[in-house]
Amino acid sequence: MTRKKVLATAAAALTITLGLAACGSGGGIDGGDGDDIDVTSADTVWRLAFNQTEEHPQYLAAVELGEALYEATDGRYGIEVYANELLGTQADVVNNVSEGSVEMMYIGGPVMESFNEDFIVFNLPYMFASQEAQAGVFADTEVTGDLFASIEESKGITVLAALFAGVRNVYNAERPVVEPEDLDGLKLRVQQSDSQVRMIELMGGVASPMGQGEVYTALQSGVLDGAENNETVYNALNHDEVAEYYSYTRHLMIPDYLLMNTDILADMSDEDREAFQALIPDLVESANTGFLEFIDESIAASEEAGAQFNDDVNVEAFRERVTPLVEESINNPVRQDLFDAVQQYNEQFPAGS
């Protein structure tokens, strides 16, 4: 375990000591009298699926949530967290959450577009001026309430929260990137998404959609020149070994979402459901704060591996290049309202605020 954080429960002011199980699922806490409490001994144990490691701040925050829920409901509910895709890929697990065979999961923002295309607004380049602006939007239920509830009837999925998942930047094996022209001819891995392909092409690069698991070998062999992602993925997947130039284009701030089966949430008693939902803002704060710490750790590790971080980037030139994609995508009243709300928060929390 690399860090410990505190999560306040809805039932009491209780300091929880974080414990992680080596098998990849999250487990016991100290009940205050020296005895470990195993959240899997709760009357009802939910499973939460995650596709990254036990060191990730979202994993740690989910373990804390499970512990806090156990305490707040006097052992009626607990959450066991499964990292490293132990329950399957996101595409598989989201169907299981919809059916109720898995209760909860974290999921990347682009996948949400397959359920409701209006989620694209939050996945567009240069949408959020700052993490604070993004957090303000997602905490405002008047802005996100209808969108988050929009897949409950059709998919049986409730969106519990949206979380900061870093800022995506370009990295490659050839040179630092300062201007769009520096991407000319560079083959960059992108997510398997039409809008992401168009984004990289507008930015000046050659987009190569590819699964994440193939990227390291493609970079090593020269099939790819680079990719785009945040610092934590860059380091965790060892891309810093084969693409040493990391440049802060800051083109995407795509959130992750915490999802839950709608019927399972509704089956809770009113008291337990209220206690559970009262814990969600603390999970968001813990995960978001932890992610910033995780970024710093990742940068330090990548620099030790020989990576060069370049912040001398003409961000405005890249922003101008992708404007057509944004304008094409804001094409109905729902998206326009979401876009306008984001701009209000961007004015309140500009870059560097």
From TrEMBL:
PROSITE patterns: PROKAR_LIPOPROTEIN. Keywords: Signal. GO terms for biological process: transmembrane transport. Pfam families: DctP. One of its GO terms (molecular function) is carbohydrate binding. Residues 1-21 form the signal peptide. InterPro entries: DctP_fam, TRAP_DctP_sf. This is 2,3-diketo-L-gulonate-binding periplasmic protein YiaO. It comes from Occultella aeris.
